[in-house]
Amino acid sequence: MMDPEAKEGGPLQEAGGAGADGGPRSGSAECGVASPFRWLRRLSRELHWSFVLAVFAVYGACQGVGNAVGVVAAAYYSKDVLRLQPSAAQFYQGIVDSPWVVKPIWGLLTDVVPVAGYRRRPYFLLAGVIGATSMLMISLQSNLGLIPAVLALTVQSAGAAIADVTLDALVAQNSITHPPLAADMQSLCGFCSSFGSLIGYSISGLLVHSMGAQGALGLLSIPSALVFSAGILLKESRVTNFSYKQVHKKFYKAIQTMGTTLKCPEVWRPCLYIYVSLNLSLDIQGGMFYWYTDRLTGPGFSEEFVGVIYAVGAVGSLLGVVLYQSALKDYNFRSMLLWGQVLSSLTGMLDLALVTRLNTKIGIPDYVFAVIDCGVSVMIGKLQWMPVLVLCSKLCPPGIKGTFYALLMSIQNVGLLMSAWWGGLLLHTLNVTRSEFTNLWAVVLIRNISRLLPLMLLFLVPQSDQNSTLLPAEMLHDDESTEPVKDGSGSVEFSVLVADDSGCHPPVEDVQDERIKVTDDVGGDVELIPLMN
């Protein structure tokens, strides 16, 4: 599964307000690290407990525990069951991750096409059903061929992507209606993902050893079932009297609005940097995993110890989230991305020392050095990724927040996909195979150098701090139809495809009295919200 936060950060890791000088602003918000329960109660009070529950289900269970077990199980499944070469394994993994590339389609569906009057619930339910059934199929079929296996993994990836984009829509919605909580929501997602990853990686090796790769993959149906449950419990306002005859117009309007929004310098400049930085961070996870588990040339780590290394990486990820939430969330974007890119290249040299066995020459055993390598690398990767997520949430215009956030995540996923394919091509070119690792050191060195190249485009990233508004005021202002901000007692109402004719928005067609009723499930209040101006 492709998770933007699960970007390669170690030898085994794959799919985990500033002043003018870049220093932190004076003052700080309530810190979730110092008082986690009070922090969670505050988020539950401001955003509703069902939203927090959905975050735990999607990021904690599905993308945390599920992704952790899936990474280890799928790696052994490709190596021992499908008998693939490292470069081929990365190629097919790109196919499996393809549903993440088309996230805007899922985002458009959640924004434009309500099902039974709801925009988010049905998609959580769909994600849970297809994720569970595909993993049960792959675990119950003992002689599943390459194509059916790749198809089943792709369907499971599609379920995870649908759940992710639906939750992203809720996060983007709340980032606009509750701007001070934008960084806190990303921290909550990061905490859930890291804790879930820690649990998943801790048990992944034991599961693969005791149940086999197929049996471990079958357990991924449990996180999907939790996503299904979150869809049932989610508190959401119901849309009534919706005209499905207007869906095609709304699709066209959404695409038009996204296109014109991307033309804004405040949007396309950071998007270009993010894409290039991911594209050039070559993913060589396949070669590193095969070398780690090779008993002749490599260290020959067992399934259990591979899970231990991943678990330490999850601890590093959690430490990265804690450090970001407590000390770094008020630094400006450019400073964070600069040091993140530099430190990512430097920590990559730990892989080089491990592959060349420099660690043994200075008396550090492979298993100790591998644990240190993964923990440090994943922590730096998390620190590098958190401000990117906050940046993306700040670039979403009103009306198509879910869809546009999905588009931004899709751009990043294309970068990750190309990174995996470029890495696979590099492994193939330098003849790194299932049993030949002579040139693996050169692959690692090339990857580390490539991580520094995106710094030439760092000027594209705004110098603004992470609590400021990045979009022009005219893009955030809408006189006639805005998404109401919760007053503390009610739920957030959803409106779709709101656009105005100022700034970077396209000219707005005249649509008279095109309104829908939004009925609150609890209070029964009705509010008329125009779909278009």
From TrEMBL:
| Predominant location | membrane
Q: Which GO terms describe its cellular component?
A: membrane
> Coiled-coil stretches, from where to where?
none
Record keywords, A-Z: Membrane, Transmembrane, Transmembrane helix, Transport
Task: Please give the residue ranges the record annotates as the region Disordered.
Answer: 1-27
Q: Does the keyword Nucleus apply?
A: no
Can you tell me where the transmembrane regions are? 49-77, 123-140, 215-234, 272-293, 305-324, 367-392, 404-428, 440-461
Quote the CDD domains the UniProt record gives: MFS_FBT
Q: Bias category Gly residues: which stretches? A: 16-25
Membrane topology term reads: Multi-pass membrane protein
Under the heading InterPro entries, the entry gives: BT1 (IPR039309), MFS_trans_sf (IPR036259)
Cell compartment(s), UniProt: Membrane
Q: Which residues form the signal peptide?
A: none
Q: What Pfam families has UniProt attached to this entry?
A: BT1
Which protein family is named in the record? Belongs to the major facilitator superfamily. Folate-biopterin transporter (TC 2.A.71) family.
Protein name per its UniProtKB record: Folate-biopterin transporter 2
The organism is: Triticum urartu (Red wild einkorn)
